[in-house]
Design goal:
Elements: E1 5-7, E2 14-15, E3 28-31, E4 36-37, E5 50-53, E6 73-75, E7 82-83, E8 105-106, E9 119-121, E10 128-129, E11 142-144, E12 151-152, E13 165-167, E14 174-175, E15 187-189, H1 195-201
Parallel strand pairs: 1-3, 2-4, 3-5, 5-6, 7-8, 8-10, 9-11, 10-12, 12-14, 13-15
């Protein structure tokens, strides 16, 4: 592999906790299908700019890329069904991410403190947006929530203070406490009689 590139070959069953933590020379990473573990595997790899999850990967791994502050490009294949807890926590350089059709759940803290993220389109396969999943994404101006979503977790969009408008469909039956608190510019659009309308009025 070229210098700075970490290609974990197919067949590797586990990537140990904090396996590459803090490695300054890691610039690009490819995660193979079938790889388990990944907990904090690339935490604080501040030179990392690009991540590719191979087709066949199901989950992105808990806190896998926490504090990778220069990560800009992420490729997530359609095989992924869950964005794991804290996968991209505090990836402050991440400007956009394509969440593919097939993802069913965006877990807690998945994109918390991704302050450069400007827009997110949640695909029609997602049913749950987890607690604090997009909290403190202060650059976020646009979020699209499809009518597959049934639950928005507590503080999911807390302090997204650049967000001006959001449409929450009638499919959303549960909205957690403070889901949109400190979004001071936000107008919530919701169908009459929906849980979202009740939330907005409260």
């Amino acid at each position: 592999a070229p210098e700075g590139e970490v290609v974990i070959r197919e067949g590797v069953k586990a990537i140990g906790e904090r396996a590459f933590e803090g490695r300054r020379s890691v610039v690009r990473v490819t995660i193979p299908k079938g790889a388990k573990g990944l907990f904090l595997a690339f935490e604080h790899c501040v030179d990392l700019t690009s991540v590719v999850f191979s087709e066949g990967v199901k989950r992105t791994g808990d806190s896998t890329f926490m504090d990778c502050t220069n990560l800009e490009c992420v490729v997530i294949p359609k095989s992924v069904t869950e964005i794991s807890s804290g996968t991209f926590c505090r990836c402050t350089g991440l400007k956009d991410v394509d969440i593919p059709e097939g993802v069913k759940k965006i877990n807690s803290y998945a994109f918390i403190d991704c302050t450069s993220l400007t827009s997110v389109t949640i695909p029609k396969s997602v049913t749950e947006i987890g607690e604090k999943s997009f909290a403190r994404c202060t650059g976020l101006t646009s979020v699209t929530i499809p009518d597959s979503v049934a639950e928005i977790g507590a503080q999911a969009f807390l302090t997204c203070d650049s967000l001006t408008s959001i449409t929450i469909p009638g499919s959303v039956a549960e909205i957690g406490m403070q889901a949109f608190d400190m979004c001071n510019l936000l107008t919530i659009h919701a169908p009459a009689g929906s849980a979202a309308e009740q939330y907005a009025e409260d």
